[in-house]
UniProtKB/TrEMBL annotation:
It comes from Thermohalobaculum xanthum. Belongs to the MoxR family. The keyword Iron does not apply. Residues 252-317 form the ChlI/MoxR AAA lid domain. This is MoxR family ATPase.
Amino acid sequence: MTDPVQEIEEAGQTLARARAEIAKRIIGQSDVVELALTAILSGGHALLVGVPGLAKTRLVSTFGTVLGLDANRIQFTPDLMPADILGSEVLEEGKDGSRLFKFIEGPIFTQLLLADEINRASPRTQSALLQAMQEGEVTVAGQHRALARPFHVLATQNPIEQEGTYPLPEAQLDRFLLQIDVDYPSRDEERDILLATTGIADAEAEQVLDAAGLIALQRLVRAMPVGEQVVEAILTLVRAARPEAAEASEAARGRLAWGPGPRAAQALMLAVRARALIQGRLAPSLADVEALAVPALTHRMALTFAARAEGATIRGVIAEIMAGLRLEEAA
């Protein structure tokens, strides 16, 4: 019988090698890499929000290489149609004159999908991803077609240029396990980027995992024990962020139009385990809950009109809620 402690330690070593390979091509952005890896190990999807030129596309292609996954990229545009993502049936004529429909798979039939600038596509096209992200299958011409295993979507969104875009509906935002804010690099990191990417040769990352190995790690994440104190902290945090709930904090009642649903608590439960595994720990702690509160809740909450007028931010409201909870006493 496999020793769970040894299994977690070996997984931590494997993930450390994976992060080292990713760091060959992604300079800095260690928090972004950890959060993206957390989302994938949790079996979920992530929304990367940042201005152009911050290596979001490079990050996804590097993840595909290191994790041993087939990767595709879709550039979302206003004229993109659902069939451009899912695929379509075409009528083919055989040599004997017979005709039959043949299904041509779209780029969604992959293991790691980069949905670039997802908010540029129309709502109809955005919704084509809903079933795939939630159920791991798509329906084309009345037939259910299973996607590859594992299947993950890493979508990007530009927070500045909003003209001609279609904000993602709440139902689709909720499908993303984490929202990852990609910030500018530090001066030293940007210097290293200049030296590393403007020469003749570009660094190459090597494969560390494959699809089967990743699936095994995802099972291990779900098998990790979670202490009662951490469970209670997650429940306390999520319920305090619902303005209509009896346990709502003052910050939520005064500034939020709506708060996170049960899927937010599920996301936190998985993400804290994955973060602990990445860092080589045997079980998640309250520090993991605090570290993942913003990525797990930001896209699942909305400010009231009055709060927006006052200049409030979702991140600031979450910080206020966290400050008033004293999670160490949640249990």
